[in-house]
Amino acid sequence: TFVVGREQQKVFAHRCVLACRCQAFQGMLSQEPVGSEGSTGSIPPQGPFILGNVQPEVFLAVIEFLYTNSVTLNSRIVLEVLTSSVEYGLQDLCQLCVKFIKDTLSVEQVCEALQVSVTPVVQDFQPTL
């Protein structure tokens, strides 16, 4: 269970799917509980995991990609999904976002797209916009 955004929307996902598809989630989901002494038989935390800095719609797009290897994007969320794809190390999702941006870039979005493209982490991770 994830609690996402200011709205504190609950998002449910299968731990095994997330851990198999994404190293960032694998690390998050396999952390030892606070106060444990490193016993090998300890049960990983069950959540909920609080993700207050991401919009629910953006997180749901990431989850959709992890489950289906495709994603439904729109101009309102694509730049945030791109940023999340970089944060979670999802190269294929990053490439889908870049393709969507290239195909749909408008005058209204150009400044925001430029700002995202000059972020050092984004530059190192994906092709230029």
Automatic annotation (TrEMBL):
Residues 1-75 form the BTB domain. It comes from the Eukaryota. InterPro entries: BTB/POZ_dom, BTBD19, SKP1/BTB/POZ_sf. Pfam families: BTB (PF00651). This is BTBDJ protein. It comes from Heliornis fulica. The lineage of its organism: Eukaryota, Metazoa, Chordata, Craniata, Vertebrata.
